[in-house]
Amino acid sequence: RVIEVKNPERFSGFDKTDMPDLRFLKDRESIDDLDIAVQSGIDKDEFMHILKEVNLEITKRRMREIEKDQLIIQAVNSMNEIEESINKLANTLREFYSYHFPELKYIVKDDEIYAKLIYDDFNNLDEIHPEMAKSISNARKETIGIKFSDNDIKIVKGIAKSVLVLYETKSKIATYIECLMNDIAPNISALAGPILGAKLISLSGGLKRLSGMPASTIQVLGAENAFFRFLRKKRKPPKHGIIFTLPEIRSAKKNIRGKISRTFSAKLAIAAKTDYFGGRFIGNKLREDFLKRINDLK
């Protein structure tokens, strides 16, 4: 049997006459695995079966090695897609139904409530929107909209139902994200909330990358477009990205908003490192320190 060897220079100290069955491969010459198997006495069908089983096991192991934070990223991407779909479909519903009852869009600003009212044909008005029940009832009686046929109403209700289904799916994904965050990144979840924390992980590309980011980078995650405008047009650089959705930052006075953002980003950097390296739970302490800093700044 001929033994094929790559890198023959490693055997330069051997006398080829002492190894008559040794053949050196040329550069980039491929090895026929099947030929070697047959030469070794392994049946062709048996070899192909073994090869298939080995490849399958390798694939399974690689799939198991996928970091759990990738599930968070996929869930966030799904939620973003659903939110876009809700916005588009809700706008379509408002435009469509405004031909029949144009006053409603000025009274009800919430898209989910708007869809519920239409789908339920205003039967549970006091339960769905008790604050505006009287205003809606009066507006319906005096509306300037055109009369819809039964078929028109059927189509509009179908759109309203689709909007409600999307809201329900979004809610289920939010619950799923909360469970994942409590398991994978409990400190980030306690400090930032599960949804914002998950979005920060998604924007950074994973918990590992987020844990290696300085606070200054975390502060502007999600503000890439504004940052590019700053580079192109020399405008003011963004002070914060998606963390602006945090109520404590969004509701703060402008003169202290930057300091609050920096404090939050610094705490988030600590939380990310602790979660990634499997440290103890310090999320509540980080949250308390963050809120104390806000009170000190006021």
CATH homologous superfamily annotation of the largest domain: Nop domain
Radius of gyration: 31 Å
Would you tell me which CATH topology of the largest domain applies?
Serum Albumin, Chain A, Domain 1
Number of DSSP helices? 16
Biggest sheet, spatial arrangement of strands:
1-2
Number of domains: 3
Number of strands: 2
Order of helices and strands: EEHHHHHHHHHHHHHHHH
Principal-axes shape call: flat
Low-confidence stretches: 1-6
The averaged pLDDT comes out at: 84
**Structural class of the helix and strand makeup?**
mainly alpha
> Could you describe the largest sheet, including whether it forms a barrel?
2 strands, parallel
- What is the C-level CATH assignment of the largest domain? Mainly Alpha
Distance between the terminal alpha carbons, to the nearest Å? 84 Å
Please state roughly what percent of the residues sit in beta strands, choosing from under 5%, 5-15%, 15-25%, 25-35%, 35-45% or over 45%: under 5%
Based on the model shown, name its key terms.
mainly alpha; Serum Albumin, Chain A, Domain 1; two-stranded parallel ribbon; 16 helices; 2 strands; disordered N terminus
